[in-house]
TrEMBL record:
Family label: Belongs to the Orn/Lys/Arg decarboxylase class-II family.
Name listed for the protein in its UniProt record: ornithine decarboxylase
Protein's UniProt keywords contain Lyase: yes
Species of the source: Lichenibacterium minor
Record-annotated active site: C324 (proton donor)
GO molecular function, one term: ornithine decarboxylase activity
Length: 376
């Protein structure tokens, strides 16, 4: 929470929940990534927060961009980034979207199977492709396994197929899981990557790049290592597995770039119990899973919640959102400690919410509007 955000919320008079993001924090985060891995290009994961102000700032700072759709590509181009600074990093793309991206000048595409390679070859002839491999995401609070990527022993065949179809077999990518708190988790994926590099080199195909993915965390309730610790661990793993022939590398921070830059202000709508004997309070907020807090699913992301009554006596409670859907419960398996003095109408501040909140907010489920966003 920055003084600028506190001052903005103090002056705000509108009703309803909102997310306020401080660009100064984003600027500092970008600088930290650039210093931690100075020989690595930063591709900001646009899906984390595509606010035009964020994209404009990062484009001016020299960032590249990881995009998941044509709309995101158009947003990045509108911010002033050139096509060679854009990666179409989604492994699941319609062929016509590949063609549109290629028409915009984008020439770097992710794949994870031969069928996707064939789509790229037809729609973007001569483009560069990198193959995403599956890797161990243990230790991550938001795992990213199974849906994207192929087994490492399949990647060589996928990239060889790309080479035969006239594409540039450019490299590999992996993702160790979002909110990865163990800097050593890149080691295993880099070992697998080095083996694939060697195998393809023996077949006459020289890969050039390893996309180290995202996973860089923001601070929620638990402390996380500093970015420089990730940089040190990753560089050590690169030297260990690639020796003096370290490939070109890129990273895709999203949460780590904008997560700690944003704070949501919400309001308590109701405090109640389910029976006279019930010792557990229910605290209902005017924001829930469908209004921006989708990452509370299975209680994987536990956001810090601040109130004006911090310091008072606390009791465990169940926190829920405002919609008429029974899954709109944020924290129940592990109840959340909140002040007993919290009451209807009290404001709460939910920290670390600059990433994956406004973009997960529903258009209008139950008639609730999308989460308001302010960038300062």
């Amino acid at each position: 929470m920055t003084d600028r955000i506190v001052d903005f919320l103090r002056r705000r008079t509108e009703d309803g929940p909102c997310m306020v993001l401080d660009l100064d924090v984003v600027r500092d985060n970008y600088t930290s990534f650039a210093k931690a891995l100075p020989d690595t290009r930063v591709f900001y994961a646009v899906k984390a927060n595509p606010a035009p102000e964020v994209l404009d700032l990062l484009a001016k700072l020299g960032s590249c961009f990881d995009t998941a759709s044509v709309v995101e590509i158009e947003q990045v181009l509108a911010a002033g980034a050139t096509p060679e600074r854009i990666s179409f990093g989604n492994t699941i793309k319609k062929e016509r979207d590949i063609a549109r991206a290629h028409a915009y000048g984008v020439s770097l595409f992710a794949v994870d199977c031969e069928a996707e390679v064939e789509k790229v070859a037809r729609a973007a002839p001569g483009a560069k492709v990198f193959c995403r491999i599956l890797c161990d995401g243990s230790g991550a609070e938001w795992p990213l396994s199974r849906k994207f990527g192929c087994a490492p022993d399949m990647a060589g065949r996928v990239l060889e197929h790309a080479h035969r179809l006239g594409l540039v077999a450019y490299g590999l990518s992996f993702h160790v899981g979002s909110q990865q708190r163990n800097p050593r988790m890149w080691d295993g994926a880099l070992a697998a990557s080095a083996a694939i590099f060697k195998d393809l080199a023996e077949r006459g195909i020289a890969l050039q790049m390893v996309n180290l993915g995202g996973g860089f965390p923001t601070k929620y309730l638990k402390n996380v290592p500093a970015v420089r610790q990730y940089g040190k661990a990753i560089f050590e793993a690169l030297r260990k597995h690639f020796g003096n022939r370290i490939p070109e590398t890129i990273i895709e921070p999203g949460r780590g770039m904008v997560g700690n830059a944003g704070v949501i202000e919400a309001e308590v709508v109701l405090v109640s119990k389910k029976s006279d004997e019930d010792r557990m309070r229910w605290v209902y907020l005017d924001i829930g899973k469908f209004n921006g807090l989708a990452e509370t699913m299975d209680e994987m992301i536990r956001y810090p919640i601040r109130t004006e009554f911090d310091g008072d006596a606390t009791e465990p409670c169940i926190i829920a959102g405002p919609t008429c859907d029974s899954v709109d419960v944020l924290y129940e398996k592990e109840p959340y400690e909140l002040p007993v003095s919290l009451a209807i109408g009290s404001k709460v501040l939910i920290e670390g919410t600059g990433a994956y909140t406004t973009t997960y907010s529903a258009v209008g489920f139950n008639g609730f509007p999308p989460l308001k966003s302010y960038v300062i």
